[in-house]
Amino acid sequence: MSSAHNPAWSERRSVVTGIGVVAPNGIGTDAFWKATKEGISVLDKVTREGCEQLPLKIAGEVRGFDPATVIEERFLVQTDRFTHFAMAAAGLALDDARLPELRDGGQGGGAVSPFAIGVVTAAGSGGGEFGQRELQRLWGQGSRYVGPYQSIAWFYAASTGQISIRGGFKGPCGVVASDEAGGLDALAHAARNIRRGTDAVVVGACEAPLAPYSVVCQLGYDDLSRSSDPDRAYLPFTSSACGFVPAEGGAMLVVEEESAARARGARVRARVAGHAATFTGAAEWQRSREGLSNAIRGALADAECAPQEIDVIFADALGMPLADRAEALAIGDALGAHARSVPVTAPKTGTGRAYCGAPVLDAAAAVLAMEHGVVPPTPGVLDVCHDLDLVTVCARPKELRTALVLSRGLMGSNSALVLRREESGSLW
Amino acid sequence: MTVQLTYIELATLMKSGAGVTVDPQLMATQPASTFAAYGLDSLGLLGIVGELENRFGRPLPPNAEQCKTPGDFLDLVNNNLTAGA
């Protein structure tokens, strides 16, 4: 804890000071934002070994990612690809935030106590690639050939644990397993930890659901797009909507208590202003209208934000007609007349949905959109058949002070997050 | 002739099983330095024990995975191999 800055519980506000992205359309914030702003789609044929004969044809793969260049060898061997992504993204976010060095064992050295920094991640499927390899050993050779690191590498909490170990972060750590919307719930959890006294939280989600075993697990979803045409596979809010395209990757953020961040001269990029989550059951897209609208209302109330203050919405954009209709109606239910004039976007049509990583990528894009004063477009989507002002084809310049990020999971979770632009405390 | 586990082989197992790179000559000259100091955790040692048991086709003593240092571990493994030969 920083003793010099100790605001009351209710005044401990959370701000974003670092962003790290490992996405199909770019590794690092600059590459990600350039592709997002330009509306470049990177959806393409699945090229992962072992996936050739599977009915999933199109995905958002993170290509050109060499984990050996960003994490130490023992993490390469002991963890799954989803943790490689998360550790890489966390490293980028920490570099971006320029957090001071940790005090070594409380014995001086750096400026920050290791107990002042926590880690929270969300995960939808854990380490499928690592798990597949060990399961193949189990059934191919026997239980004596399963390596002990299987016990931790597949686990939903693996990324939180390894980021904590690597960084030496000993503050409150957690993992949120609440479906795809858990990416937003993790940010809310981080904000709660900060309200309770933690100074900084490394928070977000990265997923790696494209190993053959993981893909097979997803084939039971009716909402998974079977299209083999990257230009037609993921077209939410259109009459051609035929499901969603899965993706890998995600984003990690550094979220800090505002006064401590400002006191150290950090670049305050946005405020985590409000959040709410609801649950309306699996395969019940019509009911998600009520769930999502209530999540939006709750997040607005939490942020003390009027509907007309929302300047841009990052939609969930599932890509099934019933789900898209429910989301469009939910936005109308919650925002009233403002719903017809607020720009809505879904950059994920250009990358696919990285499950829990998807809404964190949207949150990162929302912060960048507010900083640059531009709403990125929804790649590939043209003929919108809902009463929404969906931004298509090219980015739209607009001063943005408040962004609403929406997310739903296939199992019925709905979440809404309000982010506010903040003036920076330092000259950047 | 009895097969003996060497520091070179132990270093190879540490690298392949746990991603930990150690100079075998350093281990040989400092056999009392701990596995933990080299960056090998308990799961890593457990994996090495399993790999050796598969290779030798018989179990190592139950306390093999409790060894704290490369020196203790090689002594225990090699004594066991000698006794069982």
Automatic annotation (TrEMBL), chain A:
The keyword Transferase applies. It holds the Pfam family Ketoacyl-synt_C. It comes from the Bacteria. Gene3D superfamilies: 3.40.47.10. Residues 11-421 form the Ketosynthase family 3 (KS3) domain. The lineage of its organism: Bacteria, Bacillati, Actinomycetota, Actinomycetes, Kitasatosporales. This is Beta-ketoacyl synthase N-terminal-like domain-containing protein. Keywords: Acyltransferase, Transferase. Transmembrane segments: none annotated. The keyword Acyltransferase applies. Belongs to the thiolase-like superfamily. Beta-ketoacyl-ACP synthases family.
From TrEMBL, chain B:
The keyword DNA damage does not apply. Residues 4-85 form the Carrier domain. PROSITE patterns: CARRIER (PS50075), PHOSPHOPANTETHEINE (PS00012). The keyword Phosphoprotein applies. It comes from the Bacteria. InterPro entries: ACP-like_sf, PP-bd_ACP, Ppantetheine_attach_site. Pfam families: PP-binding (PF00550). Keywords: Phosphopantetheine, Phosphoprotein. This is Acyl carrier protein.
